[in-house]
Amino acid sequence: MPPRWPRQPDRRDPDYRRLDDRMNFALHVAIFAASNSSLWFFRILQPSPWLWTPWVTGSWALLLLAHAIYIFAIADYSEQTSQSRDPEDSPTPSPRR
Fold this sequence. Notes:
The protein is mostly helical. Helix content is about 55%, strand content about 0%.
């Protein structure tokens, strides 16, 4: 059963932003795990070693770690101020005649 959000999704909602960022991070972890396990499987299967595989895995892991640090330690999910509202939310002025 997919997760359900109890109210209308809105990117300005701090709880929704936090959940969205964590689900995005989980997707990145899943892609990392699937891709790197495939890389290492085919590296072992090949008769000649791929020398670049550890560099790809290490670099990607560092980027994933930076993403995790941002999501879990740095990101500010407090309410946004009224000055940072989307221009789409402001009422459209009526045309002058």
